[in-house]
Amino acid sequence: MRIPERGLDEATLFDTLERYREHDLPWREGRVYGYVFDAGREAERIGKEAFTRFMSLNALDPTVYPSVLRLENEVVAMSARHLGGDEHVVGNFTSGGTESIILAVKAAREHARARGIEHPTMVLPVTAHAAFHKAANYLGVEAVVIGVDTVSFRACTDQARDAIDGRTALLVASAPSYAHGVIDPIADLAAIATERGVLFHVDACIGGFLLPYFRRLGREVPPFDFSVPGVTSMSMDLHKYAYCPKGASVVLYRNKDLRRHQIFACASWCGYTMVNTTVQSTKSAGPMAAAWAVLRYLGDDAYLEIAKSLDLAARRIVEGIGAIEDLRVLGSPDMSLVAFASDTRDVFSIADRMRKLGWYVQPTLGLYDARLGELPCHIHLSINPSNVPHTEALLRDLAAAAAEAPCPDAAGIGAAIRHTFASMRPAAVDDQVMNQMLGMVGMQSFGLPEDTAAINTALDALPPALKERLLTTFVNELFTQPA
Ligand SMILES: *Cc1c(COP(=O)(O)O)cnc(C)c1O
Asked: Is the shortest distance between the CB of 386 and ligand 1 below 6 Å?
């Protein structure tokens, strides 16, 4: 494909764009339990309007557009206040949870280096978001993974205490974790971090915005934010339960002394004066203005109303799944994220069946490691406002899908894979073997087939290092450009 010699007319362009969307998830219909956080057309309209008004403004240089600086400071102020921050808490607006986390890890690394720790590490529960591993990889900070309780899926405080040593720059916990939707023992971990003199990041990317409303509704929400002494930084996404257009998150620090380590300034080149708070340099002010507008348009009242419906739906889903013979909810979800597994039915087949019935539920691979807590493969639901009216229908179809699903790994794919790879070292598996495997399980470069159960079963059986290699090979093929 090449740039057309003559520009196309508007109608052709937009027809084409719409046609491209044919096979996308139908997220507006409320039957998608993941990826989408939809509070309805009004919030969307407000976000869109603010987004387009500011999309061409460049937040690269906060001294050129005072409006952009002001919007960022106000969004961060609202976020800090929401998370129990006092007047010392500061932060920045970022493009998403991953960027917030990368920045918090970067700040912790610089903070440690300033104290003479040349090769810092961070201690994180196995349930912490993959973004921390990405940050570890990008920033050269070693990740020391600790386990969780096998019933509650909350971080194990004893393991945290044992894992912290002279190289630890940062301890990490989630409020709540993405996969199981449970809050780690934040107060206990904060006490350990304080006692050992390490920084403590609470990843409230998905929960930070919603949990205070759940607390106001009478749900038991343990202290998880800056009200807990020892919490030194936090991340909170606004493009999740604050329903802002995507590309909206904040990273917050207890004070400016900590945030200083996040900032990157460069005087070693000969272009414009360069000082960046975030990973992005040139960046659209659109997401920032949209977040500002949606927060102020909805306000506490609307957020509380929405939280009430999410709370009811989440409780009903936990109860309903608990009543389905073959399914069991993992842990005791603190919010509106629900994970469920099965000992008798193949969860990956259940996910495929649900897909055929017009739902999207998220099949999730397991992690099988006795020390870390044996985390079974499961189906994850991130419940968003548009799902609420579909709760009973979801439960009915889940019961039907579970009843029809075969037992786990009925075809023996997982067993065969485990057998084949049990004795192989990851280094011995070359690209040819990887490509053969992709073909074997039906993963082709032109996208995922309808039946993903076999693929997921195969992936689930692979050791993590091979999983990662296989996924890399797959995606490396997926992004093949048209001729
Ligand atoms: C979504 C999420 C992240 C990562 O956020 P992105 O916006 O996808 O980059 C990090 N932590 C938790 C707990 C999350 O749910």
From this structure: no
